[in-house]
Design a protein that fits this description.
Elements (H helix, E strand, L loop, with lengths): L11 H13 L5 E4 L5 E4 L6 E4 L2 H22 L1
Antiparallel strand pairs: 1-2, 2-3
Helix pairs in contact: 1-2
Length: 77
Amino acid sequence: MTPSPTGSTSTFAEAGVWADVLVRRRLLHAVVRASNGQWLVQHTPDGPVHVLPRPADVVELAAAIQHRIRATRTRSR
């Protein structure tokens, strides 16, 4: 696991905010927190559902998506 950008453990609240942003911006189809604390992630409506076990995994996914977007923008300039 990569340490979170702030150096602290990601919380469920932080992961929830990132999940909301990713879905609202249509970067992911769905992100839902399960009752056992895991996160269910679906990239496209017909795609498979991936299970992320910790809130930090959701934050890391958001960071990876941001990195990919920024790298794509840099290459297109």
